[in-house]
Amino acid sequence: MSEMTVQIVTPDGIKYQHKAHFISIKTPDGELGILPNHVNMIAPLVVHEMKIRRIDKDSHVDWVAVNKGIIEVKDNTVTIIADSAERERDIDISRAERAKLRAEKDLAEAEKAHRIDEMERAKVALQRAINRIRVGNKY
């Protein structure tokens, strides 16, 4: 069976690098599954739960909370450059839940005061916190 190298890079450095048979990512246009020998491409990513089926055994799946970025697929190498990314095993659920509560509070206050910029920031923070909680609960 063919394989591809999957690498996730953030401003803090390489967060993930393994061989895989399949990955699932999400772009603004929807979900996309990538298999080895995929056509070369570049696409933007949204906040989402990335699924990586590793080559060591079929049941080995890694989940990564990806917070926006871009994906490049070229010659069986998948590179994700993300604002931030965390593997399921590295997510502190209680910290993510506190971030969710903070974002919900900030969103409510911004909506009450009709501050559009603050509302957008709070929505993004809430989306990221929920994504981290979902991925963290898969561990």
Automatic annotation (TrEMBL):
Pfam families: ATP-synt_DE, ATP-synt_DE_N. One of its GO terms (molecular function) is ATP binding. The keyword Transferase does not apply. Residues 4-85 form the ATP synthase F1 complex delta/epsilon subunit N-terminal domain. GO terms for cellular component: endomembrane system; plasma membrane; proton-transporting ATP synthase complex. Keywords: ATP synthesis, Cell membrane, CF(1), Hydrogen ion transport, Ion transport, Membrane, Transport. F-type ATPases have 2 components, CF(1) - the catalytic core - and CF(0) - the membrane proton channel. CF(1) has five subunits: alpha(3), beta(3), gamma(1), delta(1), epsilon(1). CF(0) has three main subunits: a, b and c. HAMAP family: ATP_synth_epsil_bac (MF_00530). Produces ATP from ADP in the presence of a proton gradient across the membrane. This is ATP synthase epsilon chain.
